[in-house]
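User: Sequence for Transcription factor domain-containing protein below. Tokens please.
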Amino acid sequence: MLSGSDDNQNCYKELSIITTNQPSRSQVNILASRYPNVPKSLNSFFSPEFARPQELRILEFLVARFDTITAPCYLDRRMTILAQALPLAATSPPLAYAFLACGSALMSKMTSEDAEYQLSRCFQTMAISRISSDMMTSPTEVMALAVMLLHIYEETYCDIENPNLYHLKGGLALMDLAIARGPLITTIQHMAMELCLYHIARSSTFSGVKSEPLPDDYISSRLVALDLSARSQGKEPSWRSDSFLGFTPELFDIVFRLSLLRRKVPLQDLDQLKADQIAARLKDLRPRLFSMDGLPPVTFSEFPPDMLYTAQLYHLACGLLLLKICKVSLRENDLEVQILIEEAMQIFRTVSLAALRSPPLAWPLIILSCGTTKKADQQLLRSPIEYSSIADRLGSSMYTLRFLDCVWHGDGGNNGVGLDALFHDELLCTVFF
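Assistant: Structure tokens for Transcription factor domain-containing protein:
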């Protein structure tokens, strides 16, 4: 099997020949069978929105790049947003325009051409307009995905002065409406819900710190609905191996709850109880994720290795954030911090640079970076963000690098803010997820 990038490259060598004329469905079907990693997206060439050469060029660029910046490395490429949602764009103009906005945004970042930038803004406006006009007639999950793509579009540019979560909340409100109508029975419905929860959980620590706080059970209640829907379709537990959230979705609930607790420092009685409950949950999760008494973790053979180490790093990052919340005076040189950081670095050192660029790893990487003191460790954690800022030129990567510089170096000397960065809202909100 070719890798995803090789698949795309070879596929489009042949596709460029076909698309000089009007492609027939049989020609596309041949390509679909030959390149199984990108079959479904090819059907979108029949969408009117993708019929012109300019749009085809954007689509080609999108297929080659989009999974790299949005999909976890552990996710089967047939289960990504691109593979599952792009075919729907053939009959959904809001989704088509949202994809085109993302594709042209990525292109403009690479070319630095103003024309590409203006084109992406045009597609963004068209997507918003069509979402508004098609809201009552289009499938709810399709509208939710279009809204989520607009959030990813903003993440690509990251050039708004006051980042907020209105796209995320809008997408989740749509999925709540879908749940109210019945169980989430399709793959695309599950994906849309997971995508909303994933982004809201991560954003809550950073770009969401200045947004109005949400209820404690905002994530957990929807995870329950998602799980019940999966069980009703007989997808439990095997569906977790193809899940965007991985096999430990409760970690994203913990991430979210920690973001709310962080706002309450110093903790009072009720909030301290909540912190103790989170500590107990992390303790209960540990045997599933880490070797205990010389034995591999319970889930060692059940799921892909990259899904396991992603969950491990989330667990350790949550542990560090919880330590700092419970003990505000905690410093990066304290023994308990260094023990945790060393455990995390042992995992990071086993992961390739390409795998470190997996989007879900950004959250634990940034949190754990606040506790690192060794230059070698800092460079290792900086390298995937730096690579993304050069290779993809994402606005979010560039702002993350500035955040890390403040954490480690401050004003250019050796007086970085370290772990205290986790309490600096004006600094946290510059990281846009």
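DSSP finds 20 helices and no strands in the chain.
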